[in-house]
Design goal:
This protein has 7 helices and 11 strands. It is α+β, with helices and mostly antiparallel strands.
């Protein structure tokens, strides 16, 4: 069941970034925008509407400032982060992303990170392909969509997926995080992208309620860093709350 849900989520993310070369609009719920037409959707007044209470709570949890965080990082780990590949670094039960400046920490029991082999299986790729990306032998700048980390909750099947989208791969290097999520929003009814403070930075967010999806509530945060759109996708279901999942992620200080 968990594998099916994760596969559905990955297919959704791949569809968001896929070029529509066949000329036929996708019918699947998570199909998304084609980069091929070069169109840009302008923001509307409704973008500023208030988010629901659960999203507000999640934003508050993820935007705290912990002045002691830097002291908890050892010199060895700090050096590792300084030299970390652009895809980030997994260290035991923590994933560090220096590109966007955040970390995800799990308990290793209820929540676990997928290893390279499991990520490869989920996205139908080879283990070598994933390892080469994770260890910096190949670059996300040479790809359209890449996956930096996947964490899954054993009981509920909820997931947290960190992915990168390279707009230049679609001949749209100036495409923004907001435009990227606005394309995805166009596939749903009355959903809008909002700019929010998340992890101490300005992110775009698209919150898809479970009644409009087939894998559970799907909340995507996106920010553009160094030409790549970093997307953090929370898929929560079976009564697992978004706030609980967001509680695993925090700003990175080092």
């Amino acid at each position: 069941m968990l594998k099916k849900k994760l596969t559905a989520t990955l297919v959704a993310l791949l569809l968001i970034t896929a070029l529509s070369g066949c000329g036929k609009e996708e019918e699947e719920a998570y199909s998304s925008p084609s980069f091929s037409n070069g169109s840009k959707q302008e923001a509307t007044e409704s973008d500023a509407e208030e988010e629901d209470a659960s999203l507000t709570d999640a934003l508050m949890i993820a935007s705290f400032t912990d002045a002691t965080a830097s002291a908890s990082l050892t010199d060895a780990l700090t050096a590792s982060l300084t030299d970390a590949p652009i895809m980030g670094l997994h260290e035991k039960n923590v994933y560090y992303n220096t590109l966007a400046g955040f970390k995800i920490e799990v308990d290793g029991n209820e929540w676990k990170f997928y290893n390279a082999a499991e990520v490869a299986t989920a996205m139908d790729a080879s283990v070598d392909y994933v390892n080469n990306l994770w260890y910096g032998y190949t670059s996300p700048y040479d790809e359209g969509t890449t996956y930096a980390s996947i964490a899954s909750h054993k009981e509920s099947g909820s997931t947290i997926i960190v992915s990168y989208v390279n707009p230049e791969n679609y001949n749209m290097p100036d495409y923004t995080a907001k435009e990227y999520l606005q394309m995805a929003a166009g596939k749903y009814e009355d959903l809008h992208v909002r700019t929010v403070t998340f992890l101490g930075d300005k992110y775009e967010v698209l919150d898809v309620p479970d009644e409009q999806s087939n894998v559970g509530r799907r909340t995507q945060f996106a920010i553009k860093k160094e030409g790549l759109i970093v997307v953090i996708t929370f898929t929560t279901n079976n009564d697992y709350k978004l706030e609980e999942a967001v509680g695993l992620i925090s700003p990175l200080y080092y």
